C-alpha cells in the first residue's frame, strides 16, 4: 500500500504576530525553533518514523523551498520528502501537493505542519482506518460545555457526546480525495478541513480515530511553552525506553 503524507506549510502565521519572514524561513510558526530545530522538521520526523508512510510532500511558499531543501539535506531522510509550491490558502496548498502525487497512491494523509506531537500509533491507526473505510480523521471530545450563540446571546447548549474537535492527520483514499477537491473547485467551495470536502460528496462516512490533547496545533506564542514541555516529556520517554 502506497501512503503519501501532505504537510501544508505555506501559511504566514499571522497569529504569531508575524506576516513576513525576518530571514529565509525563520519567522513563521512552522519554522520557529523548538529545541534547536524548526517545528516543521519535528513534524516531518514523526512521519518518517512510521512504517506505513511511503513519502511526504511539503507545500511551501516559493521563497522557503530552497531553505527547507537545505534543511532536509542535513536530515538524511530514509524516505522521499518532496517540496512543492503551496497556494494562498491551505486548500490550494493541499491541492497543489495532491497534484504532485502519482496515480498509484492508495492513501493520502493530510497533517498540519505545526502539530509536531502527533504520535506514531495514532498515525498508523488513522491510515489503517482510511484504507478500510475510505476516510478517517483524528478527533477528540470537547471537555468544556459548548454553547450555541447568536449576537452574544446563548441560544442553546450542545450535547458534548455528539461533538468532536477535529485534529489531523485526516486520511482518505487517493481517488476519493482527488474527487473531493475537483468538486470543491467546480463549486467554488472552501472547506475548513479536508474532511469537509469529502463529506460533501456523500459517498463514504468519515470515521473518527481518537486523538489526544497533546496533539496541539501551535498557532500562538503561548503554545510554544506547552510545546517545550511536551518535547521534554518525549525526550525523557525515549531516554528511559
Can you characterise this structure?
The protein has a single domain (3-240), classed as Spore Coat Polysaccharide Biosynthesis Protein SpsA, Chain A (Alpha-Beta Complex), CATH 3.90.550.10. It contains seven helices and eleven strands. It has helices at residues 39-48, 65-75, 90-99, 120-133, 174-187, 194-201, 221-240; strands at residues 3-8, 33-34, 37-38, 55-60, 81-85, 107-110, 135-140, 146-150, 153-158, 165-173, 207-210. A seven-stranded mixed sheet has the order 5-4-1-6-10-7-11, with helices on both faces. A two-stranded antiparallel sheet has the order 2-3. Strands 8-9 form a two-stranded antiparallel sheet.
CATH class: Alpha Beta
Mean pLDDT: 92
Strand content: 15-25%
Summed up, the helix count is: 7
Structural shape: globular
In short:
By secondary structure, the chain is of the alpha/beta class. It contains seven helices and eleven strands. Strand 2 and strand 3 (37-38) form a beta hairpin.
Please render the helix and strand layout as text.
Layout lengths: L2 E6 L24 E2 L2 E2 H10 L6 E6 L4 H11 L5 E5 L4 H10 L7 E4 L9 H14 L1 E6 L5 E5 L2 E6 L6 E9 H14 L6 H8 L5 E4 L10 H20 L1
Parallel strand pairs: 1-4, 1-6, 4-5, 7-11
Antiparallel strand pairs: 2-3, 6-10, 7-10, 8-9
Name its key features.
241 residues; alpha/beta; seven-stranded mixed β-sheet; 36% helix
Amino acid at each position: 500500500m502506497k501512503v503519501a503524507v501532505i504537510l501544508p506549510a505555506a501559511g504566514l502565521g499571522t497569529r504569531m504576530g508575524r506576516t513576513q519572514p525576518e530571514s529565509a524561513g525563520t519567522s513563521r510558526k512552522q519554522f520557529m525553533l523548538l529545541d534547536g530545530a524548526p517545528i516543521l522538521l519535528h513534524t516531518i520526523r514523526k512521519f518518517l518514523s512510521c512504517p506505513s508512510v511511503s513519502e511526504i510532500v511539503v507545500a511551501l511558499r516559493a521563497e522557503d523551498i530552497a531553505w527547507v531543501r537545505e534543511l532536509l539535506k542535513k536530515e538524511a531522510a530514509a524516505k522521499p520528502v518532496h517540496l512543492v509550491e503551496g497556494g494562498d490558502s491551505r486548500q490550494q496548498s493541499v491541492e497543489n501537493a495532491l497534484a504532485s502525487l502519482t496515480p498509484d497512491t492508495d492513501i493520502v494523509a493530510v497533517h498540519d505542519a505545526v502539530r509536531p506531537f502527533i504520535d506514531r500509533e495514532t498515525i498508523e491507526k488513522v491510515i489503517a482506518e482510511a484504507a478500510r473505510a475510505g476516510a478517517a480523521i483524528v478527533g477528540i471530545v470537547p471537555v468544556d460545555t459548548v454553547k450555541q450563540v447568536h449576537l452574544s446571546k446563548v441560544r442553546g447548549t450542545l450535547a458534548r457526546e455528539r461533538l468532536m474537535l477535529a485534529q489531523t492527520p485526516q486520511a482518505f483514499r487517493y481517488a476519493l480525495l482527488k474527487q473531493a477537491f475537483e468538486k470543491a473547485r467546480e463549486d467554488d467551495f472552501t472547506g475548513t478541513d479536508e474532511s469537509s470536502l469529502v463529506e460533501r460528496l456523500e459517498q463514504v462516512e468519515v470515521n473518527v480515530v481518537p486523538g489526544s490533547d497533546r496533539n496541539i496545533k501551535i498557532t500562538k506564542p503561548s503554545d510554544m511553552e506547552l510545546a517545550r514541555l511536551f518535547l521534554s516529556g518525549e525526550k525523557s520517554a525515549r531516554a528511559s525506553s
